[in-house]
């Protein structure tokens, strides 16, 4: 039902009218966008109210960055653009980090911001929250549009949706000046101006010759390796991906957010033998994974001396040869590519050499066995492994829960220890290793999937979005937050030798983050041992009540920058 109002033009004549507010709402609904993440204020407060009145779910956050991260991960989880709604200048800028993050991570998202009077902004006459938002957004996202006429709202949103989800997905900025909302037009003409986007992300079928070339290279491999990235998880082609990997018989590695595409406990999983497979593989097939820093750019020590051939499957042609030569590029959407590869394998594909898989499995089993006793330690205060050991079991028992993860040690160790069993259940810091996604991701994951959420957060990481615990309590979302509280960034033991100020990486000792949750009516628990942690998390996951568990971790347990300390630049001057 379209939004209309009736207005008497002249005695005896009645004209049905609509306006910018209602056209935005109608355009969103027509395209199946039913959830908005944002923060209200001039000029979009009434828009939010009207959206709510019209049946759109509007989740109101405490800071736009968190609403933006929520929208970005909603896009990843649903393949529809997640929408973040903000006010002008400062609200827009607060949302912009998340928009850039969405673009970097290839998540479809639309940031819709209200903006000030164009005439005043362009003459730089000092309007309320004056800023040329469109110009600022442009270099940070995939596309940016501004709508000046109510009659163009339909087409503007259609362009934004297409740009966000087609090809390689990304962030799109949509600028809606304040004046637009009040613009009135004939309701019938307004209805006609709306655009329902048909086939927003058209299939991109790979060339048969590219598929054949890739299969020929794979067939010739003695030590093949398949690497699955979050692009593969995004594709929602789970059955074909699994069938392809299994038919190939090759060991596979799953990048952080691809974990669970196949269970981490799968016989071909090389997750616990990462360094061996990267060094020794002779053919590497990347599926929706980029050769960026997370894979050491495909070269150097990590990749060893053995000559390698790379096959890459990606929707973005420019991704090919970005870091090393790709001998078999396959360009297309992951679903179409994998199904073509699977079909091309035919009925008589011979699986990867058994001795290679046996070598990899042996290494993996050794590493898993080495880790096992550490995970069972019941020390108090806890170390990372003791705490993660119990969480690992809880995730195994609750494979549908969404696992959110950020921090340094808290991230790197949890990624290694906690096996995932189903696709798109692990969401984390992504390509940038950004802190601050925690609460936004948790909220969107709960809202979009209806599943319970377990967020495991470093104490520093949590601080970036911590105020959203109020949002979680307000909407009564089934989110259990576990804070690995080691009194600081990486470790809580750093000392500043120069003054009485604390070291830059340490926080107030013995903080009780659980009290923050209690302040808003949620459940807060202080857990000092793995047993206590286990009881508290299970209770939270069973109850579905917003819960925050302050897990006390030995401040000396972590290491600088977790697993990526090697990226810290070193001073050439000797330490005194
Ligand atoms: C937006 C942003 N700011 C700063 C950083 C740098 N940084 C990386 S990890 C981290 C916090 C690590 O501490 P914590 O979350 O407590 O994890 P721990 O290693 O202590 O378990 C910070 C600040 C970042 N990655 N992103
Ligand atoms: Mg910490």
Break the fold down into its secondary structure elements and pairings:
Blueprint: E1 5-10, E2 13-19, H1 20-30, E3 35-38, H2 45-53, E4 57-60, H3 64-78, E5 82-86, H4 89-105, E6 109-115, H5 118-122, H6 133-137, E7 143-146, H7 153-165, E8 171-177, H8 178-182, E9 184-186, H9 187-193, H10 208-219, E10 224-228, H11 230-234, H12 238-248, E11 252-254, H13 274-280, E12 283-287, E13 309-314, E14 328-331, H14 334-345, H15 354-375, H16 384-397, E15 402-406, H17 409-417, E16 426-428, H18 438-449, E17 453-458, H19 459-463, H20 469-474, E18 479-485, H21 514-519, E19 523-527, H22 530-543, E20 547-552
Parallel strand pairs: 3-4, 3-5, 5-6, 6-8, 7-8, 10-11, 10-12, 12-13, 13-14, 15-16, 15-17, 17-18, 18-20, 19-20
Antiparallel strand pairs: 1-2, 2-9
Helix pairs in contact: 1-7, 3-4, 3-18, 10-14, 12-14, 16-17, 16-22
Bound molecules: thiamine diphosphate (TPP) and magnesium ion (MG).
Describe this structure in words.
By secondary structure, the chain is an alpha/beta fold. It is 39% helix and 18% strand. The chain is built from 22 helices and 20 strands. The strands form 4 sheets. The protein has a 6-stranded parallel β-sheet with strand order 4-3-5-6-8-7, sandwiched between helices. The chain has a 6-stranded parallel β-sheet with strand order 16-15-17-18-20-19, sandwiched between helices. β1 and β2 form a beta hairpin. α1 (20-30) packs parallel to α7 (153-165) and α16 (384-397) packs parallel to α22 (530-543). It is globular. The termini are far apart. The site of magnesium ion (MG) has 6 residues, from α19. Magnesium ion binds at residues 458-460, 486, 488-489.
């Amino acid at each position: 039902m379209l939004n209309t109002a009736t207005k008497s033009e002249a005695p005896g004549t009645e004209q049905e009218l609509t306006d910018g507010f209602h056209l935005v709402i109608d355009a969103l609904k027509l395209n199946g966008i039913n959830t908005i993440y944002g923060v209200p204020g001039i000029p979009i407060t009434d828009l939010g109210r009207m959206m709510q009145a019209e049946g759109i779910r509007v989740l109101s956050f405490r800071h736009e960055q968190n609403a933006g991260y929520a929208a970005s991960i909603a896009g990843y989880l649903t393949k529809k653009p997640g929408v973040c709604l903000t006010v002008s200048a400062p609200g827009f800028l607060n949302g912009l980090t998340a928009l850039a993050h969405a673009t970097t991570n290839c998540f479809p998202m639309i940031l819709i911001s209200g903006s000030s009077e164009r005439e005043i902004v362009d003459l730089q006459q000092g309007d309320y929250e004056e800023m040329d938002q469109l110009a600022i957004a442009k270099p940070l996202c995939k596309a940016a549009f501004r709508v000046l006429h109510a009659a163009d709202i339909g087409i503007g949103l259609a362009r934004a949706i297409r740009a966000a989800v087609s090809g390689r997905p990304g962030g799109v900025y949509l600028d809606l000046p304040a004046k637009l909302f009040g613009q009135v037009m004939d309701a019938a003409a307004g209805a006609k101006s709306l655009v329902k986007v048909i086939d927003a992300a058209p299939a991109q079928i790979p060339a048969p010759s590219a598929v054949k070339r890739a299969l020929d290279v794979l067939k010739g491999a003695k030590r093949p390796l398949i690497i699955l990235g979050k692009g593969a998880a995004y594709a929602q082609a789970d059955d074909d991906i699994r069938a392809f990997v299994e038919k190939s018989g090759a060991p596979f590695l799953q990048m952080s957010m691809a974990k669970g595409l196949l269970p981490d406990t799968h016989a071909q999983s090389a997750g616990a033998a990462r360094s061996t497979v990267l060094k020794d593989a002779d053919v590497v097939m990347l599926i929706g994974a980029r050769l960026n820093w997370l894979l050491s750019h495909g070269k150097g020590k990590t990749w060893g001396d053995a000559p390698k051939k790379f096959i890459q499957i990606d929707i973005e042609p420019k991704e090919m040869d970005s870091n090393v030569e790709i001998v078999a590029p396959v360009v297309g959407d992951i679903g179409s590519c994998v199904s073509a590869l699977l079909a091309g394998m035919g009925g008589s594909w011979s699986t990867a050499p058994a001795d290679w898989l046996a070598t990899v499995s042996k290494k993996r089993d050794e590493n898993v066995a080495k880790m096992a006793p550490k995970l069972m330690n019941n020390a108090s205060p806890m170390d990372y492994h003791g705490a993660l050991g119990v969480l690992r079991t809880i995730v195994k028992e609750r494979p549908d829960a969404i696992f959110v993860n950020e921090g340094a040690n808290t991230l790197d160790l949890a990624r290694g220890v906690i096996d995932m069993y189903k696709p798109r259940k692990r969401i984390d810091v992504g390509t940038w290793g950004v802190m601050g996604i925690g609460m936004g991701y948790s909220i969107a994951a709960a809202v979009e999937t209806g599943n319970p959420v377990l967020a495991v957060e470093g104490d520093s990481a949590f601080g970036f979005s911590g105020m959203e615990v109020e949002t979680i309590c307000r909407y009564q979302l089934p989110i259990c937050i576990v804070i690995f509280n080691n009194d600081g960034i990486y470790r809580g033991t750093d000392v500043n030798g120069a003054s009485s100020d604390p070291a830059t990486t340490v926080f107030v000792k013995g903080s009780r983050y659980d009290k923050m949750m209690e302040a808003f009516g949620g459940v807060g628990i202080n857990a000092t041992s793995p047993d206590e942690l286990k009881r508290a998390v299970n209770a939270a996951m069973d109850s579905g009540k917003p819960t925050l568990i302050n897990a006390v971790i030995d401040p000396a347990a972590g290491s600088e920058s977790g697993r990526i300390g090697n990226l810290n630049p070193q001073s050439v001057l000797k330490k005194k």
